[in-house]
């Protein structure tokens, strides 16, 4: 489905989106400086040019909703409420970081307050996990939406399929953002996936999908808010393909010389923050004074956050030993937060069918088979010789958002050039 | 085995009863789901069909579609989703239709589920259970004992019971544990082994072995189906004047070193019997523990009786040759007793 960009935002929402994109970029700029000063222990990954996606999607969520960020979703963490110091300290392996030095980068979470699930490096694994969060939240009556992100490369994993398919069979309130940044490390998208639009993958799961220009933060937000509302309303999981470009290498060590110059130039001219600044100025939502105010605010904030992070100690060596197991109530009091009557899920009422059951799912004894639509197939009882001119049916082309189409054409042209 | 409203026919009325190993597992799930609405069951064909071995028969009727979830054939999705549910304070039980298929979700278990508490302080209270083991001519993909893949993974607990009492008590303990627990059910025992279980609620502590038979001449360590083979062998050894102490490990991770060491320090000889293959089996780990902590107490070599280092073959003649049996344990024990 193609999203019509019609929804109006409030002035504050427009400015919030701008602020978080700027914050996203400023946090990453600070980390580049820290990296060059050898203060970052491991790798540093960049979401330069992809900020509109992290920010525009996460901004649609309510406080109770759940996210699991990928490596290029620092913006989503910031929108969710993670202070920049936590991100700095994670990268610097500091003792005050959320994982206290046990893991780095964006690999941290918060089950109690911010509702963030920590990612792992194996791509796609978050999809079934967030499906479980979505199903679990529905079971508890919390009306939450779970959101995670995946790249064009990560969409090639088996667990992408298993997770999204399971989410679809369960009609889980789950939104998956597929950031097609055209490169999976050094491998161009066309060698990952033989599809023009990765959103087409949604058809295989019978779920709705959108394609959006990932460098247009307003388009990203308006598309994502519709998807989130639909998922929350029980329409099932939704896939959004956001078309964009990874402006830097896979990580700091990678100069990405495999990327054609024309392709880079095309996307650099479409920087999501620069595009949005022009839009805000044109719409009289931001002027030079307003911009300066944000510049100063970010400068003050990040100087303080960076100072805090730099002053945090490294974890003591023996801290490596503990924490493998939860030792019980002294360690974690595990309690489900029920927001529906427990009577609905305990006998005798628990044998009632939930409203979200997929029509036709299951048949026969105990499954409500009497209500299930039955289709036995189209095989005639007598076999006929197939006609010679039989060929596969043509799939009707689908309209695509204007910006995305242009971007895609340019990307395709750039990669055609690259092949020559 | 018709049950009104899915209620167990045995063991729940009064005074306890003798039930099968399989029924013990079913009762444990049933009672835990009755006790706590945070407990759910997910797996392939666990709902309408009641599970490939009928371990979840009647649960869908009793607890409904939101709590007994038939999934697609997607082991990674089952484990991943269970992990996500556990983050909300739920306590999902995942069934692997055959435990052989657990390796399809290897990454989810070893990288996601197992590491969460250490890395970001996120407990994942969930159980992964399923039928394991050979001796039923299931062939190379329906007979596995994959415990050692997971015993090498910090963050998991691994249970492998041998009696209905332990199966029920340990599965209940696993559901109540705040950590991910792998629970292996030897399918050879499902309908062959019966035992008494009390009518009241009980658990068996995770991480505790049990002495099944006292003896003074040598220690036999075993678990699951081989536990019964070991006990049978101990009877035969007794007729020859060799009193074997037989210990049921029950939990393989964490291993009950104390019970093992206490026994070996008494008998000074140790034989490990397991159905898992030899190389990298738990006997090797136990050998290392004994060398580290009971070296001066050993009067003979540590002896291993295990399956062959091959896949599980299909033909009954081949599988019987592949598996340990009472005869093999007997001759190994006699040899060890001579030291």
Give a verbal description of the structure.
The complex is a heterodimer of chains A (420) and B (339). Chain A has helices spanning 11-36, 51-58, 74-80, 84-92, 126-139, 158-170, 189-192, 217-232, 261-268, 272-282, 288-311, 402-419, and strands spanning 66-68, 146-151, 174-180, 183-184, 187-188, 208-213, 238-243. Chain A is α/β, with parallel strands linked by helices. Chain A has a single domain (11-312), classed as Rossmann fold, CATH 3.40.50.970. In chain A, the strands form two sheets. In chain A, strands 1-2-3-7-6 form a five-stranded parallel beta sheet, sandwiched between helices. In chain A, helix 6 (158-170) links the parallel strand 2 and strand 3 (174-180). In chain A, helix 1 crosses helix 2, helix 2 runs parallel beside helix 3 (74-80) and helix 4 (84-92) crosses helix 11 (288-311). The radius of gyration of chain A is 24 Å and the shape is globular. Helices cover 35% and strands 19% of the residues of chain B. Chain B has helices spanning 21-35, 59-63, 75-86, 106-113, 116-120, 147-151, 164-176, 225-239, 257-267, 282-293, 316-322, 326-337; strands spanning 17-20, 39-43, 68-70, 91-95, 127-132, 157-159, 181-186, 194-197, 210-213, 218-222, 244-248, 251-253, 270-277, 303-307. Chain B has two domains: 10-197, Rossmann fold (3-Layer(aba) Sandwich); 210-337, Rossmann fold, CATH 3.40.50.
CA(first)-CA(last) distance of chain A: 34 Å
Helical coverage of chain B, percent range = 25-40%
Mean pLDDT value of chain A: 89
Shape of chain A: globular
Element string of chain A (H = helix, E = strand): HHEHHHEHEEEHEHEHHHH
For the secondary structure, the number of strands of chain A is 7
> CATH H-level name of the largest domain in chain B... which superfamily?
Thiamin diphosphate (ThDP)-binding fold, Pyr/PP domains
Mean pLDDT of chain B: 95
Structural class of chain B: alpha/beta
CATH superfamily label of chain A: Thiamin diphosphate (ThDP)-binding fold, Pyr/PP domains
Largest sheet geometry of chain B: 7 strands, mixed
CATH architecture of the largest domain in chain B: 3-Layer(aba) Sandwich
3D shape of chain B:
globular
């Amino acid at each position: 489905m193609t999203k019509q960009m019609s929804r109006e935002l409030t002035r504050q929402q427009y400015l919030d989106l701008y602020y978080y994109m700027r914050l996203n970029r400023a946090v990453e700029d600070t980390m580049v400086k820290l990296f060059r000063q050898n203060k970052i222990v491991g790798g540093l990954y960049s979401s330069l040019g992809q900020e509109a996606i992290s920010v525009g999607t996460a901004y649609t969520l309510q406080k109770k909703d759940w996210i699991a960020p990928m490596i290029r979703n620092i913006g989503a963490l910031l929108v969710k409420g993670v202070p920049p110091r936590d991100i700095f300290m994670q990268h610097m392996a500091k003792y005050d970081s959320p994982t206290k030095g046990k893991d780095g980068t964006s690999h941290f979470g918060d089950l109690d307050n911010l509702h963030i699930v920590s990612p792992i490096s194996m791509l796609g694994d978050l999809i079934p996990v967030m499906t479980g969060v979505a199903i679990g939240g529905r079971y508890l009556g919390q009306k939450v939406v779970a959101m995670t992100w995946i790249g064009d490369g990560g969409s090639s994993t088996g667990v992408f399929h298993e997770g999204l398919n399971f989410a679809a069979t369960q009609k889980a309130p789950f939104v998956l953002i597929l950031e097609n940044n055209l490169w999976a490390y050094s491998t161009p998208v066309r060698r990952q996936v033989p599809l023009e639009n990765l959103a087409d993958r949604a058809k295989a799961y019978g779920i709705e999908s959108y394609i959006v220009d990932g460098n247009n933060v307003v388009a990203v937000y308006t598309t994502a808010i519709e998807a989130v509302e639909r998922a929350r309303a029980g329409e099932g999981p939704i896939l959004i393909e956001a078309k964009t470009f990874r402006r830097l290498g896979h990580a700091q060590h990678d100069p990405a010389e495999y990327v054609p110059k024309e392709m880079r130039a095309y996307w650099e001219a479409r920087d999501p923050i620069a595009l949005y600044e022009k839009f805000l100025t044109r719409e009289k939502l931001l002027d030079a004074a307003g911009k300066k105010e944000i510049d100063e605010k970010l400068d003050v904030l990040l100087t303080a956050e960076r100072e805090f992070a730099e002053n945090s100690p490294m974890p003591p060596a023996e801290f490596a030993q503990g924490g493998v197991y939860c030792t019980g109530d002294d360690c974690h009091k595990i309690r489900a937060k029920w927001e529906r009557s427990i009577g609905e899920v305990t006998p005798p009422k628990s044998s009632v069918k939930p409203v979200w059951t997929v029509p036709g799912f299951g048949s026969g004894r105990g499954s409500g088979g009497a209500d299930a639509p039955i289709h036995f197939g189209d095989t005639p009882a007598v076999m006929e010789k197939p006609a010679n001119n039989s060929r596969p049916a043509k799939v009707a082309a689908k309209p695509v958002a204007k910006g995305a189409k242009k971007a895609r054409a340019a990307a395709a042209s750039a990669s055609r050039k690259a092949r020559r | 085995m018709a049950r009104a409203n899915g209620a167990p026919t045995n063991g729940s009325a009064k005074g306890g009863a003798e039930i099968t190993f399989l029924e013990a597992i079913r009762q444990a799930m049933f009672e835990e789901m009755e006790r706590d609405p945070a407990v759910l069951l997910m797996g392939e064909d666990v709902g309408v069909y009641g599970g490939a071995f009928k371990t979840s028969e009647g649960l869908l009727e009793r607890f409904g579609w939101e709590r007994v979830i038939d999934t697609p054939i997607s082991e990674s999705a089952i484990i991943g989703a269970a992990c996500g549910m556990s983050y909300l304070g739920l306590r999902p039980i995942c069934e692997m239709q055959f435990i052989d298929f657990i390796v399809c979700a290897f990454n989810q278990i070893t990288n996601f589920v197992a590491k969460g508490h250490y890395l970001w302080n996120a407990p994942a209270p969930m159980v992964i259970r399923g039928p394991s083991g050979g001796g039923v001519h299931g062939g190379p993909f329906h007979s596995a004992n994959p415990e050692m893949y997971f015993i090498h993974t910090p963050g998991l607990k691994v249970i492998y019971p041998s009696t209905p009492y332990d199966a029920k008590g340990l599965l209940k303990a696993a559901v109540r544990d705040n950590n991910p627990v792998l629970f292996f059910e030897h399918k050879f025992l499902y309908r062959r082994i019966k035992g008494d279980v009390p009518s009241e609620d009980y658990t068996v502590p995770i991480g505790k072995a049990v002495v099944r038979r006292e003896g003074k001449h040598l220690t036999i360590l075993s678990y699951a189906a081989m536990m019964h083979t070991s006990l049978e062998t101990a009877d035969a050894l007794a007729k020859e004047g060799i009193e074997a102490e037989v210990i049921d490990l029950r939990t393989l991770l964490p291993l009950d070193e104390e019970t093992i060491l206490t026994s070996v320090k008494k008998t000074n000889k140790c034989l490990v019997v397991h159905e898992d293959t030899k190389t990298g089996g738990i006997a090797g780990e136990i050998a290392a523990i004994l060398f580290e902590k009971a070296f001066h107490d050993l009067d003979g070599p540590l002896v291993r009786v295990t399956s062959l280092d091959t896949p599980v073959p299909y033909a009954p003649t081949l599988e019987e040759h592949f598996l340990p049996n009472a005869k093999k344990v007997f001759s190994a024990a006699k040899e060890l007793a001579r030291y």
